[in-house]
Amino acid sequence: MDEEYQEEQIDLRDYLRVLLKRRWLIFTIFMIVVLTVAIHTFSATPIYQATARIVIEKENPNVVSIQEVMAVDTTGSDYYQTQYKIIESRTVAREVIKRLDLENSLEFFPPPKDDIISNAKQWVQDIITFWKDWVKSIIRTELPEEADVTDEAGEYTPDSDLVSDFINRINVQPIRNSRLVDINMEAKAPKLAASMVNELVRTYIDKNLEIKLEAAKDAVKWLTERIEEERKKVEAAENDLLRYKEKHEIITDFSSDAEKITAEKLAQLNAQVVEAESNRVGAETRYQQALALEDTPEMLDSIPEVLKNELVRDIKKMEVNLYNRSSELSKKYGKNHPKMVAIRSELKELTMRKAQEVKRVVGSLRNEYRLAVAKEESLRKALNMQKTESLALNKKAIQFGVLKRQAESSRNMYELLVKRFKETSLTEEMKTGNIRIIDKAEVPRYPIKPKKKMNLLLAMVVGLTLGIGFAFFLEYLDNTIKLSEEVKSQLRIPYLGLVPAYTTNGDFDGIAPDLVTVHSPKSTASESFRGIRTSILFTSADHSPQVVLISSAGPEEGKTACVSNLAVAMAQSGSRVVLLDCDMRRPRVHQIFEIPRDSGISSFLVGTDELKEVVRRTPIKDLDVIASGPIPPNPSEMLGSKKMKALIEALRKDYDRILIDTPPITAVTDTSVLAPLSDGVILIVRAGVTPKPLIQTGLGQLQSVNARLLGAVLNGVQTGRDSYYYYQYYYYYYGEDGHRKRKQRKKDKNATSSAEYNS
User: Fold this and answer.
1) pTM check: above 0.70
2) Burial call 65-96: b when 16+ CB within 10 Å, e when fewer
3) Backbone CA torsion sign across 460, 463, 467, 473
4) Considering only CA atoms, which of 552, 588, 565, 549 is closest in space to residue 500?
């Protein structure tokens, strides 16, 4: 887990190495961007900007109030957004163009430049326009009728481009938390910029006022029509009311007092009827009582009316007096005494008079009863009549009220419209608005475009960003092996060492330029080969490999030069070494060691030559070479023969180290055939060139034949300041004077390749 974590860690030095490696690409892109922007900035025509400030009030400063006629809510944000769009409208733009005669302005119609660049641009634009028109003419599917409709609805006018250009220059900037608005316009000429802004503001104010006046005119027209209609309605309603009053003989209006009086009359009559009914019942009761006692005169005295009668009461008093006298006289006189007879005669007369008075009282009760009945009937008749009249009056009042309210409503509407008509007429004559100019645009002194410092700064930032981004993008697309860590982590095979790029140009006293271990034994490349030799010897704890096969995944990775220098390094260490050139398709070993190729492995395998005849001595001590010999038609069959195996076994007895140069693994099967005969295989990988998938394919072929893989060697590594290995590539060596020196390997500016060979 710790190892995996360390592998996934991001090392900033890797990013630095990428930047150093591709610094010229980054610098080139950076300079292209900066120079392009600088040329455009310093050659561009200066653009000036003029600004005018206006205020858009919330409320219309009108003297009269006609909100009912033309209600405009100026408190919402939609009102201000509408005003901003009116400023940028084509109608306002056309009016400004007309006032300033911009159709003949050099600002919008500059004369064509007569130079090569301008002519080329114009030629390209003409071609593009031609092809656009041609494509439109082909794909147009409109019918003639549709075209006519389009023309009537609104065709493309000649000044449309000018209007669009003018509108594109308008910039409306509302000031936050205020009703102030800044209006900006740009132009090449500073005076024209100020003139356009000021004229735009004036035109906008005029258009705004014109819109309001048009609305007032429309309102006046509408009110005039409505007033005439309402006047006719008022006349009709009043005539209907008058006819109704004449028909029903209504003199006064039906007021609440009249209704109150009528109600009081009904209540009074109703009370009188109740009272009359009560009186009639009482009179009837007394009369019936009197009739019931009429046959018993002695009982009539019990009638209250009789008892209350003064005459009856006087008679009774007189009778009492007479009875008292009769009682006194009876004591003196007999009953036939004249005085007694006279008293009886007076009593009889009084009784008769009393009977007559009682009859008269009974008669009065009868008359009283009849009068009560008549009065009750009369009051009931009057109550019914009053009810009938009240109902009729209510019906008349309802219809009268309907007609009266209709007439009043029509009259009120008429008067309201007349009032609004007067207010609107007055507003139409007023020349005030809710938009005022705060600051007029002044002629600008300095251009706002191009912003040289900002453009150059942005160009440097963008150029550097693009350069770095493109560098890392190329690095991302690079799927080759460049670092030793990638060999371990991605290929999962041992890493034996690296071979730096070294020069193959120059005179080396007859020695092949590829044999750097011979003509430059103290160079870093030679030290690298000696280090790889040591790594090979220590690949096994028991015994070092005797037969080593060197190959590569693809062609031109420098395996032949590597195997040749490894052979020299091993021979210089005191081992007897033989180098076999088993690349029978494109052999190169004989060229490096300058030996003939007429006899070699192929001639030995077919039996033409003996082993001692194909082994060639070299000027390097303890190093022999066996060339490939004539190129056979079937190299794979020959290398896989028993005689090849016998050759290897024979050489094992005479040499300490046997190095075999083979073709690329993925190109042919020769390496796969020879790999089982060796003690180990070394894979040469050209740093920054060989793709990872190709290497993985070659490793898969070696694993399929159970070959022992000793490790990989990175060839052609750049160790200069812009390389991946600059920070870690140091060597220590001993000089001829025997003192230890420390030397940092720097990239040789004359190095053009790293021993590329055709394998």
Assistant:
1) no
2) ebeebeeeeeeeeeebeebbeebbbeebbbbb
3) positive
4) 565
Where are the domain boundaries for CATH 3.40.50.300 in the chain? 480-501+527-713
**In 187-224, which positions are buried (b, 16+ CB within 10 angstroms) versus exposed (e)?**
bbbbebbbbbbbbbbbbbbebbbeebbebbeebbeebe
DSSP 3-state assignment of 578? Answer: strand
Q: Which two tokens stand for residue 376?
A: 């009750």
CATH class, 258-397 region: mainly alpha
Q: Is 722 exposed, middle or buried (0-12, 13-18, 19+ CB in 10 A)?
A: middle
> How is residue 157 annotated by DSSP?
P
CB contact at 8 A, 579 and 549: no
Any bridge partners for residue 661, and if so which? Answer: 550, 581
Q: Which amino acid is at 264?
A: E
C-alpha span between 684 and 701 (Å, rounded): 15
Residue the block writes with tokens 């019931």: 292
Please choose, from the candidates 487, 593, 581, 588, the residue with its C-alpha nearest in 3D space to the C-alpha of residue 535.
487
Q: Tell me, what's the pLDDT at 12? A: 78
- Predicted confidence band at 6 (pLDDT cuts at 50, 70, 90)? very low
> Is pLDDT above 70 for 165?
yes
Give which of 449, 440, 494 is closest to 685, Cα–Cα: 494
Nearest C-alpha neighbor of 564 from the set 613, 530, 505, 517: 517
Please, what CATH class does the domain formed by 19-217+433-460 belong to?
A: alpha beta
Cα–Cα distance for residue pair 516/532, rounded to 1 Å? 14
DSSP one-letter code for 676: G
pLDDT at 210: 81
C-alpha 425/C-alpha 428 separation (Å) is: 5
Distance (Å, whole) CA 654 – CA 550:
20
User: 384 or 454: which carries more pLDDT confidence?
Assistant: 454
More confident residue, 150 or 487: 487
Nearest in space to 656 (alpha carbons), one of 533, 491, 521: 533
CATH code for the domain defined by 480-501+527-713: 3.40.50.300
- The kind and range of the H/E element at 496 are strand 495-500
Q: Are strands 577-581 and 435-439 parallel, antiparallel or unpaired?
A: unpaired
d(CA 529, CA 514): 12
Nearest to residue 559, comparing CAs of 756, 376, 321, 297?
756
Torsion-angle region of 622 (φ positive above 0: left; ψ -120 to 50: alpha; else: beta) = left
Strand partners, 714: 498, 685
Report residue 416 as tokens: 């309201």
Q: Provide the pLDDT for residue 563.
A: 92
> In this model, does residue 576 exceed pLDDT 90?
yes
Least Cα distance to 61 among 426, 422, 430, 425 occurs for 430
CB atoms within 10 A of CB 583: 28
Length, in residues, of the chain: 759
- Whether 732 contacts 588, CB under 8 Å: no
Check: CB of residue 588 under 8 Å from CB of residue 758.
yes
What region does 714 belong to: left with phi over 0, alpha with psi -120 to 50, or beta?
Answer: beta
What stretch(es) of the chain map to CATH 3.30.1890.10? 19-217+433-460
Separation CA 733–CA 744 (nearest Å): 11
Predicted local distance difference test score (pLDDT) of residue 301: 59
Q: pLDDT averaged over the chain?
A: 77
Main-chain dihedrals φ then ψ at residue 719, nearest 5 degrees: -115, 20
E strand spans, 629-720: 657-661, 680-686, 709-717
Secondary structure letter of residue 487 according to DSSP: I
Residue type, 374: A
State phi, psi for 581 to the nearest 5 degrees.
Answer: -95, 90
The DSSP H or E segment spanning 183 is: strand 180-187
Task: Work out whether strand 577-581 and strand 623-626 pair parallel, antiparallel, or are unpaired.
Answer: parallel
Backbone angles phi, psi at 45, to 5 degrees: -75, 130
